[in-house]
Amino acid sequence: xxxxxxxxxxxxxxxxxxxxxxxxxxxxxxxxxxxxxxxxxxxxxxxxxxxxxxxxxxxxxxxxxxxxxxxxxxxxxxxxxxxxxxxxxxxxxxxxxxxxxxxxxxxxxxxxxxxxxxxxxxxxxxxxxxxxxxxxxxxxxxxxxxxxxxxxxxxxxxxxxxxxxxxxxxxxxxxxxxxxxxxxxxxxxxxxxxxxxxxxxxxxxxxxxxxxxxxxxxxxxxxxxxxxxxxxxxxxxxxxxxxxxxxxxxxxxxxxxxxxxxxxxxxxxxxxxxxxxxxxxxxxxxxxxxxxxxxxxxxxxxxxxxxxxxxxxxxxxxxxxxxxxxxxxxxxxxxxxxxxxxxxxxxxxxxxxxxxxxxxxxxxxxxxxxxxxxxxxxxxxxxx
Length: 384
Known about the structure:
Elements: E1 6-11, H1 18-28, E2 32-37, H2 40-47, H3 55-63, E3 70-73, H4 83-89, E4 93-97, H5 103-111, E5 115-119, H6 132-136, E6 143-148, H7 155-158, E7 163-170, H8 184-194, H9 203-214, H10 225-232, E8 236-241, E9 249-253, H11 256-263, E10 266-270, H12 288-307, H13 310-327, H14 334-341, E11 349-352, E12 360-364, E13 373-374
Parallel strand pairs: 1-2, 1-4, 2-3, 4-5
Antiparallel strand pairs: 6-7, 7-8, 8-9, 10-12, 10-13, 11-12
Helix pairs in contact: 8-9, 9-10, 12-13
């Protein structure tokens, strides 16, 4: 009986997709298919990042495919991490796709008298082209909205009177624009740090790392810590400030019924990005009365969310924004003023997300007003 031909393939196979499956099926046409899966250490060494899926999971997925005869974790290191297994199995063919072609692979196969076969990267019939890089580039880093109390995370405000900032972490289910009050600059720092997903671990510790990276020594205008905390911590969080950059106390709501209720009553609409030369701190007028009004509105916002009281929520969000505008009049530009004057019927409260000069109009209503979009509250650490 003729011994069946053996084909050998190597790869990371992170975020296994239809392109991987099509390539492996094509390779299996040459004979019994052996698949060498790159180890976590090798991927970190070569690509400078950890894989999205650990090696045991990637091996399980590859081995589960009908076209794969045997799969294993490569025991070597570097670009030729599969070399020990290639020498041991001595397959008839080594199959690579055009993205994985290299002189080193060709030379290794030549030295071992193994046929080197190159396949073009082609999708399965009727399916789109897929790549792990493209899938990985779709960021799952959350955004955040400060519902009430924004500016109290700045010591020059909360040192006048203490109070909370109420932030809600939201899923990146919409293409939100930059410079628009949803902590997009902090989110960009998170992407530079961690890629497209938040790492696991203690949420407040991660937020401290993010805050420090966004505000290195020498930074003159410190971004508030509510941005980092609002992105990293899921649910709705109360951050109590009393004259420091970091809150003295944090408290989060994870109750899914409350978060679902909130997500069905908060809606946003873009008013355009903030101009690069916009300076909200010009004409600042901070008084003890305005800071206390801001803190009181923020406390009321927290209570209204816990009580699921939409009328109180609308009043609190509106009151918070009015207090902010008293301290920072430039927050209300002509465009913002016009938007506030033209609020749709049924809106029970409104504010501008961020520091003004543009951004998202945030409203409270029982149903989504025309021209607005629903937010998706991040219920848990599903982005970690």
